[in-house]
Design goal:
Helices cover 56% and strands 8% of the residues. The protein is built from 34 helices and 13 strands.
Length: 749
Amino acid sequence: MKDAQKPDHKNLHTILVWLKDGRFVIPDFQREFEWEPWDINLLIRSIILDYYIGSLLLWKGTSQNISALSCEPVYGYRGEGRPEYIVLDGQQRLSALYYAFICPDIPYPGRVKRAYFFIDVKRFSDEEYDDAFRYEWQSQRLLKLLNDTQSQYAEHQFPLSVFGEEGWALPNWLQGYEKYWQERAKEAADKGDTPQAEAATIHAQNAALFSKHLEGISNQYQISYIELDRDIPVEKVCDIFTKINSSGIQLDVFDLMNALLKPHLDEGEPSLKAMWRTAAPRLAFIESEKMNVYILQVMSILRQSYCSPKYLYYLLPNHKKPIRLPDGKRDYEILVPDIRDFKKRWNHAIDSLANAIRILCHPNEYGVIAFRFLPYVGIIPAFTALQAYVLTCEPATRLDAHRKIRHWYWASVFTTRYSRSVESTSARDFQEVRAWFDDDTAEPALIHEFKSRFTNLDFYKEVKRGSSIYNAIFNLFIIHDARDWISGMSAQNEDLDDHHIVPVSWGEKNLKGKNLSIHTILNRTPLTKDTNRNFIRDRLPNEYLPELIAKNGDKAVRAILEAHFISPAAQEILLHKPFTPKDYEEFIAERQRTLRHAIEDLLIKERLDLPPHLRELDDKIEKTELMLRKIIADALNNDPSKLPQTILQELRELVQRVVKKNAALDIGNYKTLNAMLEFSDLRDLQNIIIGKNTWPLFSLRFSNKEQLNIKFNQFAELRNTIRHSRTADEITLKEGEAAILWFNQVLNK
């Protein structure tokens, strides 16, 4: 193919001009434009941040070839155009550029509305790149924003369509944005509003930097392409195309791994794609097109703790991974020596994924009884790798490791941790949770964040089925054994309805302007289809609950409603006649309080696996410990220096270790005795009270050291039995409960 192909490149501005001129056409054998809006976002992000987006493969077409291949313009282009290049590889990228930058007035593929793409300049300037690139569906509010540059400046929203406009549209917008914030800075300064003036000045400075950056990208960002000569026969061009891209869409990492693995296979051995087709039925529960990539990511995490695409390539047999030695020199490491080892790791990853899915699906574990109730599909590789790693740990440590995985999982879900940057988050979480297995003081900062933020979670706004928090709460219903109100049976996936407790029809009539609130997760619960559709139908609870109570008794009905996180107080509200919008708001508020308490009780205090009577005992134990800490802090005037020296030293060292490993904590917050005692265990509290120098401060309250030590021993035995999930014999239970009663009586003197 001498002189048949010519590498070249053009800047972004030129490519956009060519797109507007209609120079690119797509052959019929390619698929339609299939990218999702978030795929376009990633492409825009790569271009604006000056990352390479790959080369295009173009064929300098003739009118005969364009006709023979039934070529069409890129998606959204209207008009005859000036067809010049047949796109063999790069259709999705070029179509995405045309739709985002040129902004044709046409709905998004498969949607009834069009999408508009923006750069949030403020977030871009703050280097919050994950959130700086966004899209929005057409609406009246959005159209108003697009027609009002002043509002765009005020909200820091740069429409990508400005790139595609004629003449000086781009520099005019950028200059206008900078001028807008210069004027705001001057106005604020004239009013003496220094903070506002400083903030506006920063925006103006950032505007100038953004302008320089964007103009540089427009003129200097190069998009490379290979141009095939127009005289190459059609048959040869089609053969080239099928060899580089059999699907007509951009190759993903799995396709590339499939191609790169082939040289390592013996004749007749199945390809990676064939291996995936064999494995797919075992993993069918996860309805994701990325499941084949997840297998590779699990392999990679378990082998090298990372899973971004560049690390996946190091899984290829005999592929050398560069490493840096302690002396600073570079060397290479082979992670997978041969194809046998690759297949062994592949099969292990599949087994691990199947096991992880089984654990997630279990109604007593994570409650994901159907894929539609999985909070995040992107959490699967990290969750799987952690479950697989636990099986390599010492058996005696696995109970605690599984407890920590549960804590990490729910913290990740309720802090929406896996909403973006999934690959880097997965790698970081695997490393941090694995370190936590070995060292209790290495608790990830995420856990502290969850503990401090959960009380602010607003479940009222969770109205969209499938959102992470909506699904997480639905999972808790299942875990909490929220049985059907009529049959008393656990609802199965195929027979499960997402039931509105207060009917939608009532909300539409009575919640004027607030119709969305009737769909909040706080007004939803799982019931069987028969109960929802044939017994309850469209009735208010004050109509059918009295029927249930009359037939089954108040106690039985109350118990089943409490399993659905409907407290006795919420039940009383639901029985009000008439049932008013005020009652609805009170019911929603009460259920939110109940759910927050349940999250604290089940997930943060980790009572998820305890039967109800042991949960109550564990709650009493915790309250007693808190009372003991308060009594000690009060008696020692909240002064750590009054502690026995050995205990003081141990607590200081523990605080320092924890703070050092958790950047979210500030050691300055742990200078008082009250704060330091958060790190004490039960035996520390016992030794503080009976210490030689401190006993006089407590002797009047506790009277007898010997009796106090006996009660502490009984109390500790029950506490440890519950916290370590051991079976509690009757004597331990009775003595422990008696110790709790004794402490409560003494501490309340």
